[in-house]
Write a structure and sequence with these properties.
- This protein has about 260 residues and is an all-alpha fold.
- The chain has twelve helices and no strands.
- It has one domain.
- Helix 2 packs antiparallel against helix 6 and helix 5 (about 80-85) packs parallel to helix 9.
- The two termini are about 25 Å apart.
């Protein structure tokens, strides 16, 4: 395992935890750039995701920020879709290109979110049936993408929920945190079905990354609690994601 991954994972966890995400998309990208076997990427990333967001989800739930009556349609299809996506075998080229595209879109969505995140309130006036159908479609699509690429999907969910005026910033943060946790668990279960014995042994050598994200995530949660200008953190994270996306696109081109 390249040594630069340990501080890189710690800093990534710090940045993402400060804005309420897990960091799975960037973990996966960093591993891909480092030359890690692509079959291992989703498993490592999802494990790191779970570590970072578990505490945040618990805090959101304890504070009453998760509206269980409104949130369930997001998970009804996303969890089985994440499990199914995690089982699909994909080539390295397809995986790298899909991840690069997903990261590029995520970075742009976060930039859009950072402009007016504080002004969004719960003004979604769609009929209840349409809201449920829209949430089912969003959850299913993002869950499948999360399972295939080894991310939690919250990095896409939060900006989308802001754009459709789904709820208050606090409610959206709680929904995204729980979405990441549950989809990461479901995607990880699917990914383990493709794990061979040799890959399982190689996986153990990446344990320092779990410690790095544990410490980085704790520091990020602390920084977020200090009420720093979150828009600055969002913009910085978005630019990092876009740069990583461009690097992955170049890697995908070399695989052609």
């Amino acid at each position: 395992m390249p040594s630069f991954l340990i501080p890189a994972f710690g800093v990534t966890a710090l940045l993402y935890a400060a804005i309420g995400f897990g960091g799975g998309s960037t973990y996966t990208a960093l591993l891909a750039i480092s030359g890690t076997g692509y079959q291992l990427l989703p498993i490592i990333s999802l494990c790191c995701n779970i570590i970072v967001v578990a505490g945040g989800t618990w805090r959101f739930a304890r504070a009453g920020a998760i509206d269980w009556r409104r949130i369930w349609p997001l998970f009804l299809l996303s969890i089985p879709a994440a499990w199914f996506g995690g089982q699909l075998p994909v080539s390295e080229l397809a995986f790298t290109a899909l991840l690069a595209g997903a990261l590029g879109i995520a970075g742009l969505l976060i930039l859009l979110q950072s402009k007016d995140a504080q002004d969004h309130q719960n003004i979604d006036n769609r009929p209840a049936k349409k809201r449920v159908l829209l949430n089912l479609a969003i959850g299913g699509g993002l869950g499948f993408l999360a399972g295939v690429t080894g991310i939690g999907g919250g990095i896409f969910l939060a900006p989308i929920l802001y754009l459709i005026h789904w709820g208050s910033p606090r409610a959206i943060a709680g929904a995204a945190s729980l979405f990441i946790l549950l989809n990461s668990l479901a995607g990880l279960a699917g990914q383990f079905t493709n794990l061979s014995g040799n890959n399982g042994a190689a996986l153990l050598s990446y344990w320092p990354l779990l410690l790095a994200v544990l410490l980085g995530g704790a520091c990020g949660s602390w920084l977020g609690a200090l009420r720093l200008p979150l828009n600055w953190l969002r913009r910085g994270t978005a630019l990092l994601i876009i740069l990583v996306s461009l690097r992955l696109f170049w890697r995908a081109i070399t695989l052609l």
